[in-house]
Amino acid sequence: NIYHQYVLEQQKTVDEVDTLFYWKQQLAHTNALDMMVKASKISTHRINNSLLIGAEHSQSLKTFCRQLKIPPSVYFKAIYAFILQRYCQPDGDFFITEVLSSRQKQHYKAFGCYYQQVPMVFNADDFRPQQTIQSYLLKVKQQIRQLGHFKNISQSQLQQFLPESRLSFLYNFYNFPKQVDFLAQKTSIQQ
């Protein structure tokens, strides 16, 4: 069973001493994001909003990302953090939790949970008024690259380093292809 091999490998590499030290340092001074909602605005029904980006806007975003040599996932993660920072107004550094896929190519047909949650820390200085969007995006890209093997941390260990919070904010990027192979036929995905 290939998934069993994956689990055994993860057990060898998760929660190494340098990884625990890294996250303890990274999260030592982070604040939990919070927001207050007026009682009159609280709703008991579910709210589900989505935004579809038009073809022209989508092409402009792709061009912008190519110029900065960043993937769209980095762009949207940085924008999400920027919006949260403005909306929640934390007193300092804060984090969001990203859901990552850790499935390796040789496991593409295996059945199992290949996802992992990793915090992304945003420094308060990243949101200074004189900061340009390009420098902010490049800093986020660099920070993601530095994670490397530090992604290998268990949720039980991670919870020991995170500040207590009544809310949590997750980021999960899905890049849906326009066309997929389904039952040996090319199928277009319709909106």
List strands and helices in order, with pairings:
Blueprint: H1 2-13, H2 17-27, H3 55-68, H4 72-88, E1 94-101, E2 115-122, H5 133-147, H6 155-161, E3 170-171, E4 179-182, E5 185-188
- Which structural class do you get from the secondary structure elements? alpha+beta
The tally of beta strands, per DSSP, is: 5
Work out the radius of gyration: 19 Å
- Main beta sheet strand tally, sense and closure: 3 strands, mixed
With strands numbered from the N-terminus, the spatial order across the biggest sheet is: 2-1-3
Helix-residue proportion? 25-40%
Order of helices and strands: HHHHEEHHEEE
Can you describe this structure?
This protein is an alpha+beta fold and 191 residues long. Helix content is 40%, strand content 14%. The strands form two sheets. It has a three-stranded mixed β-sheet with strand order 2-1-3, with helices on one face. A two-stranded antiparallel ribbon has the order 4-5. Strand 4 and strand 5 (185-188) form a beta hairpin. It starts with a helix and ends with a strand. The mean pLDDT is 84.
